[in-house]
């Protein structure tokens, strides 16, 4: 059940971001609508239509990038020193990775 709820929330959030972006950028909405009208001839889109609708495809990818549905995900790190395929992999201590930008 948790997987179903998680999937539903993700889809719902993506849909809400799509509506928000289209409302905020009506010129993008108009261009996507024109591209779909010109290429789909009144039918629902399929995966086969992607090569013919590059602007729509780019818009969807930009909404995915912009929305960032997982801003609070945990960082991935090694929990303890280990060996993987003969290579030693060390656990990093907190704060060990520093920003390499020079401070003024």
UniProtKB/TrEMBL annotation:
Q: Can you cite a GO biological process for this protein? A: xenobiotic metabolic process
**Keyword annotations from UniProtKB, A to Z:** Iron, Metal-binding, Monooxygenase, Oxidoreductase
* Keyword Metal-binding on entry: yes
Specify the domain of life of the species encoding this protein: Eukaryota
Cleavable signal peptide: none
Which cellular component terms (GO) are annotated to the entry? cytoplasm
For the keyword Ribonucleoprotein, the answer is: no
Q: Which InterPro entries does this UniProt record tie to the protein?
A: Cyt_P450, Cyt_P450_E_grp-I, Cyt_P450_sf, Cytochrome_P450_fam2
* Gene3D superfamilies for the chain: Cytochrome P450 (1.10.630.10)
Q: Which GO terms describe its molecular function?
A: heme binding; iron ion binding; oxidoreductase activity, acting on paired donors, with incorporation or reduction of molecular oxygen, reduced flavin or flavoprotein as one donor, and incorporation of one atom of oxygen; steroid hydroxylase activity
A Pfam family found in this protein is p450
Could you say which protein family the record assigns here? Belongs to the cytochrome P450 family.
Record-given protein name: Cytochrome P450
The organism of origin for this protein = Romanomermis culicivorax
